[in-house]
Write a structure and sequence with these properties.
- The chain is α/β, with parallel strands linked by helices.
- It has 2 domains: 170 residues, Rossmann fold (3-Layer(aba) Sandwich), CATH 3.40.50.2300; 291 residues, tm_1862 like domain (pyruvate-formate lyase- activating enzyme, Alpha-Beta Horseshoe).
- It contains 18 helices and 18 strands.
- The relative contact order is 0.10.
């Protein structure tokens, strides 16, 4: 093993899920990791990967430190993703364990959260050696050559790399800049996972749809697949919108893979026995030429597989027709996020459609018997006890008109995303913001990894509406819980974890 990749949990590195009631461990690996790990393998490096929450869920006494010490050849380079803020504490806990066990190993973190807070992380956490801002392929290629191989370039010349230039804590980004274009993305292998420990258990965990998912004996298998990068929207609650990608990764809108390249990957997954592919971006927002070619090529090659797609806005009827003609609907699910039953609240938060259009679209999905997952959001700006009544009305209407066996519904609370418009411009939304630094997110994750005896929904979310105290969110959550319990379809209570 030359290089080790570790996906952290939200919780500490030695979390005991068998002893305590945890908040979600967030076990999904960022989709881009698959591509750069396989790129490094193609360069000749021996790379292994651990999904720490999966390891801990399967073997509660698993110790990363002991596992590292047991390896015949220990890694020289350790990669840890810190993409989503929910891993802020867990990723640094892994980094500390690695450094305390393998003092000579070079520890690197990357991802969107790292991209925003990289300098602060290096200044405050000495057991991280480097951080990568933005796309990681070329930076990791050059860094691996330096650390593991015999690279000729200097660390100070590696693009996107954040480092400590001297002996002090101050950190800065190198001047060189890199971002992946469509051709680069198409050249990467986003499918092979044989480098990951417990890869089949993880493939079962990724399946989205009806039925109980277990790590021990997964019934169906799915794979999150990169179809592009970036975004064309700026939903106010999301830290991965167009403006964030522009500032952190240097891209404007989508960088799309070719439909031919994605079809090749889907063909591999179907051949390997996967029942479902999860698309990393909403291809319904791609140009119609792209998704028409994608679906046609799948049909022409008689590739039949379930598709999980999250609709960022409402899809056209033509898109739904093409998808349903092509996909294995028994293993298909689409996610839709109206956020609120109040149209003004929905529009404020970045979803631009009326209830009438939304319900009309559901009629089209119902005609094809497509499983759907509806997401509301309890605590976004604008949602009040008055507007919440409209959310309940819309949820009730959906439940009365959509087949119960094809419907799932959830109404969680949002936590403040770094770099989201809510975070950047709180005054525009009448908000008070509590999370401003990486340490704020680190402390939030450390304090919310395990559920306390009494949970107040809406608490510890990094923001509060000036006109809507947290106790109002808890009251709304209790009303939703009563509604959810009364439904005949799978309607979940407001989560008590973070």
């Amino acid at each position: 093993m030359d290089i080790l990749y570790v996906h952290p949990a939200k919780q500490e590195v030695d979390a005991r899920y068998d002893k305590f009631r945890s908040s979600p461990p967030y076990p999904f690996i960022p989709v881009g990791v698959v591509g750069f790990v396989n790129m490094l393998r193609a360069e000749g490096y021996q790379v292994r990967g651990l999904n720490l929450p999966v390891e801990l869920l399967q073997r509660p006494t698993f110790s990363l430190s002991q596992w590292l010490r047991s390896q015949r050849i220990q890694p020289k380079l350790v990669l840890i993703d810190l993409h989503w803020y929910e891993h802020s504490f867990g990723a640094l806990s892994v980094a500390q364990a690695v450094k305390e066990t393998l003092s000579d190993a070079v520890v690197v973190i990357g991802g969107l959260t790292t991209s925003y807070y990289g300098e602060e992380i290096l200044a405050d956490f000495p057991y991280v050696d480097y951080a990568v801002r933005g796309d990681a392929e070329e930076p990791l290629r050059q860094l691996a050559a330096q650390v593991v191989g015999k690279g000729s370039s200097q660390v100070g010349d590696i693009p996107n790399l954040i480092r400590r230039p001297g002996s002090g804590p101050k950190a800065e980004q190198n001047l060189g800049f890199y971002f992946a274009d469509s051709a680069m993305l198409d050249s990467l292998d986003f499918v092979s996972m044989d480098w990951l420990s417990n890869q089949r258990a993880y493939a079962g965990l990724q399946y989205s749809g009806a039925g109980l998912v277990t790590l021990e004996k997964p019934k169906f298998f799915s794979h999150w697949l990169t179809v592009g990068r970036g975004c064309v929207f700026d939903c106010i609650y999301c830290g991965g919108g167009k403006e964030s990608h522009s500032e952190l990764a240097g891209r404007n809108g989508y960088v799309m893979r070719s439909p031919e390249g994605v079809v090749e990957d889907v063909a591999r997954l179907a051949k390997e026995g996967f029942q479902q592919v999860n698309l990393s971006l909403d291809i319904a927002t791609y140009p119609a030429k792209w998704w028409r070619a994608f679906f046609k090529q799948l049909r022409d090659r008689e590739i039949r597989i379930g598709i999980y797609n999250e609709f960022f806005q409402l899809p056209s009827n033509d898109f739904i027709d093409e998808m349903c003609r092509t996909a294995d609907l028994a293993h298909t699910e689409v996610a839709i996020s109206p956020l609120s039953g109040d149209e003004e609240v929905r529009r404020t938060n970045g979803k631009y459609y009326t209830n009438e259009r939304f319900l009309r679209m559901l009629e089209t999905l119902k005609k094809y018997e497509v499983p759907i997952f509806i997401y509301f959001s309890l605590n976004l700006p604008g949602e009040t006890p008055q507007t919440f009544k409209k959310t309940l009305q819309l949820a009730d209407q959906i439940g009365k008109t959509y087949p119960h066996d094809l419907l799932r519904m959830l109404n969680p609370c949002h936590t403040l995303d770094p770099m989201s418009p809510m975070s950047r411009r709180p005054d525009s939304f009448g908000m008070n913001v509590q999370f401003n630094t990486f340490r704020d997110y680190y402390d939030y994750c450390k304090g919310t990894g395990w559920e306390p005896r009494r949970v107040v929904r809406g608490q510890h979310r990094g923001f509060e509406m000036a006109s809507r105290p947290t106790r109002i969110i808890e009251q709304m959550a209790q009303i939703w819980d009563v509604f959810a319990q009364a439904q005949q379809f799978r309607c979940f209570p407001v989560p008590r974890g973070w």
